From TrEMBL:
Keywords: Glycoprotein, Membrane, Methyltransferase, Signal-anchor, Transferase, Transmembrane, Transmembrane helix
Enzyme Commission identifier(s): 2.1.1.-
A UniProt-annotated Pfam family: Methyltransf_29
One GO process term, biological-process aspect: methylation
Keyword Glycoprotein: yes
GO cellular component term, pick one: trans-Golgi network
Membrane-spanning segments: 30-50
Major subcellular location class: endoplasmic reticulum
Region (Disordered) location: 84-117
Low complexity biased stretches: 84-96
Family designation: Belongs to the methyltransferase superfamily.
The protein, known as: Methyltransferase
Location in the cell: Endoplasmic reticulum membrane; Membrane
Source species: Nicotiana attenuata (Coyote tobacco)
């Protein structure tokens, strides 16, 4: 999807500037002088006629809502590779940008902001390079180890929040482009050798010079993840589009999810932050969807009926314990007719019991208890062949309710999954009138699923959303993403971005508009949103999670290449501090990653001040519908910088900038 101009040559110091933005009737910078004259004229007329309204035209109405302010074109100078922290607020190339803020004039009467108007955020200590605030290993020690509760989310309170920028490790490089990133990652980006030793026999990961290589090995797929996925494909059809979304519990370095992507299946991989150092971080470096997470005492942060397939390969989750509570949670997030795949203990225990260093009776008892829980859930054993066993969830509870009525959960919100306690009961499926009907509605096969009306909407269960409004929303986001790409040509560069985050996804329209690009989008539905739409997003064949943006996300620093935030600061006004949300965005954004923020102009002015203090290169532009819209857009690029070199640094980069 090439833009109207040839994208500029990419370099570590590249940032948006006037030459990189094609002419557009909507660009504020293109219209700045016209706008300045218009506002000056309106201010003069208002002064002459007093405060009374002199016109009811749209122009004067809009002008009345935006104060008459001095417009200033500012420019930022190039930053030296060796710049120090005290001088790092300089940008990496020249860029003119429009400043909406009303500044006090200096002695010469110019509208120039004072030097101390922007709070500059310092760099954090290098020890925070991999800081995950809500899964901090030190804080977790204060909580119970029973059922791995200490590895759940435990966020810092307000007084413990960091007010500094998380540094990238010395020598950090831009990740390899997809699909090369599936097999390779830079050692400097995730400087951990532990898994290369601990999992050497299983062939998870190898260090080769300044790079890691992911051969695709695993405990239960000695011939590689690709061959393992082929084995599953022989048992259930992975090619006809009926299986699109999957969840991998205890994912390791996410090789299963990585090789499903070539089959157009999008897997959400998760694993705890535990002794297998940085496994989720490796997954994200590879360009595979992943989150830090654990099955312990809380529901997984996904809606009911989200996934076509769930998978556990030697994931060490005690499925047979706690009255089957963990399998009941898998049942909640599995779609009607969905599959649960289990390989590793206790499957095929007769062959492997000695190698697993467990007794036959122990393994046989575990499998028997798993089978019993599956029967309670009304699952049927679909197949067990060699190292793989597969169960299938029923398409409805028409028969199951009659047989297992006592085990059904009482009436509840089955999609509620943010700090929601697990329960030992079966999540009921929507009512059906016959055994042949699919509970909740039949989904289209992929790729038709993306644009078909989701069953949750067609059935009227999503408050305020109709088939018509869904289609309008899809068209709106196609227009908006097209506009984004016309403003910033980097968005047209194949492979420039891979991991995308939409902080307020609503119906997933932003993500759907990127479907032809080699990217994936983590669609977040804030728990404060008026309507819970994450189930709709999954019914479109997309993936996402719940999140409260007053807290940190369950992911590592430098996860995303591009972050999109639509009305986030309006939503969280008076809930938490704007700077804390922006600091979290900075934490999870890669060096030289991009940000697009949509907000009312007054809010965007405040956002820009903080973004400047984070040393982002920023540019405010008009709404896609023109300058009369109060909503504006801020395009930003995070500057490249790293922690200083240490004695242990493996310098794989040429002169990285250290702030």
């Amino acid at each position: 999807m090439a833009g109207p101009r040839t994208p500029p040559y990419y370099s570590p110091t590249y940032k948006p500037n006037a030459a990189n933005f094609p002419s557009s009737p909507y660009s504020i910078r293109i219209n700045v002088y016209t706008l300045a004259i218009a506002i000056t004229f309106l201010c003069s007329i208002t002064y002459l006629f007093g405060r009374g309204s002199i016109s009811t035209s749209p122009v004067s109405n809009v002008a009345a809502t935006i104060p008459c302010i001095p417009l200033k074109i500012t420019s930022t100078a190039a930053a030296s590779n060796n710049s120090k922290l005290s001088s790092s607020s300089s940008s990496s190339s020249t860029s003119s940008q429009l400043d909406f803020s009303a500044n006090q004039g200096d002695d010469e009467g110019e509208g120039v902001a004072p030097d101390d108007s922007v709070k500059v955020y310092p760099a954090c200590d290098i020890k925070y390079s991999e800081y995950t605030p809500c899964e901090d290993p030190q804080r977790s020690l204060k909580f119970k180890r029973d059922r791995l509760i200490y590895r759940e989310r435990h966020c810092p309170d307000k007084s413990q929040l960091l007010k500094c920028r998380i540094p990238a490790p010395y020598g950090y490089k831009k990740p390899f482009k997809w699909p090369k990133s599936r097999d390779l990652a830079w050692y400097a980006n995730v400087p951990h050798k532990e898994l290369t030793v601990e999992k050497a026999v299983q062939n998870w990961i190898r260090k080769e010079g300044d790079k890691f290589r992911f051969p695709g090995g695993g405990t239960m797929f000695p011939n590689g993840a690709d061959a393992y996925v082929d084995d599953i494909d022989k048992l259930i059809n992975l090619k006809d589009g009926s299986i699109r979304t999957a969840i991998d519990t205890g994912c390791g370095v996410a090789s299963w999810g990585a090789y499903l992507l070539s089959r157009d299946i999008l897997a959400m991989s998760f694993a705890p932050r535990d002794t297998h150092e940085a496994q989720v971080q490796f997954a994200l470096e590879r360009g595979v969807p992943a989150l830090i997470g654990v099955l312990a005492s809380k529901r997984l942060p996904y809606p009911s009926r989200a996934f076509d397939m769930a998978h556990c390969s030697r994931c060490l989750i005690p499925w047979d314990q706690y009255d089957g509570e963990y399998l009941m949670e898998v049942d909640r997030v599995l779609r009607p007719g969905g599959y649960w795949i289990l390989s590793g203990p206790p499957i095929r225990w007769r062959k492997y019991w000695k190698g697993w260093e467990r007794t036959r009776d122990d393994l046989n008892g575990e499998q028997t208890r798993i089978e019993e829980v599956a029967k309670k859930l009304c699952w049927k054993k679909f197949v067990e062949k060699d190292d793989i066993a597969i169960w299938q969830k029923p398409y409805n509870h028409f028969q199951c309710k009659q047989q297992k009525n006592k085990l059904m959960c009482p009436a509840q919100d089955t999609d509620k999954a943010w700090y929601t306690e697990l329960s030992t009961c079966i999540t009921p499926l929507p009512q059906v009138s016959s055994e042949e009907e699919v509970a909740g509605g039949q989904l289209e096969k992929w790729p038709k699923r993306l644009h078909a009306i989701p069953p949750r909407i067609s059935s009227g269960t999503v408050n305020g959303v109709t088939a018509e409004s869904f289609e309008k929303d899809s068209q709106l986001w196609q227009k908006r993403v097209s506009y984004y790409k016309s403003v910033d040509n980097k968005l047209n560069q194949p492979g420039r971005y891979r991991n995308l985050l939409d902080m307020n996804a609503y119906l997933g329209g932003f993500a759907a508009s990127w479907v032809d690009d080699p990217v994936w989008v983590m669609n977040v539905v804030p728990v404060e949103a008026e309507v819970n739409t994450l189930g709709v997003i999954y019914e479109r064949g997309l993936v996402g999670t719940y999140q409260n943006w007053c807290e940190a996300m369950s992911t590592y620093p430098r996860t995303y290449d591009l972050i999109h935030a639509d009305s986030i600061f309006t939503m969280y006004k008076d809930r938490c501090e704007m700077e804390d949300i922006l600091l979290e965005m900075d934490r999870i954004l890669r060096p030289e990653g991009s940000v697009i923020i949509r907000e009312d102009v007054d809010i965007l002015v405040e956002v820009k001040k903080i973004a400047d203090g984070l040393k982002w290169d920023t540019l405010i532009v008009d709404h896609e519908d023109g300058p009369m819209e109060r909503e504006k857009l801020l395009f930003a690029v995070k500057s490249y910088w790293t922690a200083p070199a240490t004695q242990d640094s493996n310098n794989t980069s040429t002169n990285p900038r250290m702030f």
